[in-house]
Amino acid sequence: MKIGAIIGTVGGATRGVSAALAGSQAGAIIGAIAGPLGITLGSISGAILGGLAGGIGGCALGAQLGESLDRHVLAHNLCLLCGHRFNLPT
């Protein structure tokens, strides 16, 4: 699950970078109403929010995928009494 979350976070952050570029452009356009300071603040806030949204979404999706793999494919369920490893029913 942790590995899936890490991979998802990296993938989501990568996707977030492209969203951040689009967000910074949109923020700059909206901030243009307030002048040069608005353009700067709009660009920065658009980039930050785009990156955060991508990273969070990727982490959540990766964690769900990792949990599903752990529970149903990798047989990481261990009986503490006898030491037997097993998969959970689907």
Chain-averaged pLDDT: 74
Order of the strands making up the biggest sheet: 1-2
Query: Span from first to last CA?
Result: 17 Å
Q: What is the rounded Rg? A: 20 Å
Largest sheet: 2 strands, antiparallel
What's the total number of strands?
A: 2
The low-confidence runs, each spanning 5 or more residues with pLDDT under 50, are none
State the domain count.
1
> Percent helix among the residues?
over 70%
The number of helices is 2
Large-scale geometry: rod-shaped
The structural class is mainly alpha
SSE sequence, one letter per element: HHEE
What fraction of residues sit in β-strands?
under 5%
Give a verbal description of the structure.
The protein has helices at residues 2-31, 36-72; strands spanning 77-78, 85-86. Helix 1 packs antiparallel against helix 2 (36-72). It starts with a helix and ends with a strand. It has a two-stranded antiparallel ribbon. The chain contains 2 helices and 2 strands; from the N terminus they run ααββ. It has one domain (2-86). With 90 residues, the protein is mainly α. A hairpin with a 6-residue loop joins strand 1 and strand 2 (85-86).
Ordered list of secondary-structure elements with their pairings:
Layout (H helix, E strand, L loop, with lengths): L1 H30 L4 H37 L4 E2 L6 E2 L4
Antiparallel strand pairs: 1-2
Helix pairs in contact: 1-2
Features:
2 helices, 90 residues, two-stranded antiparallel ribbon, mainly alpha
In short:
With 90 residues, this protein is mainly alpha-helical.
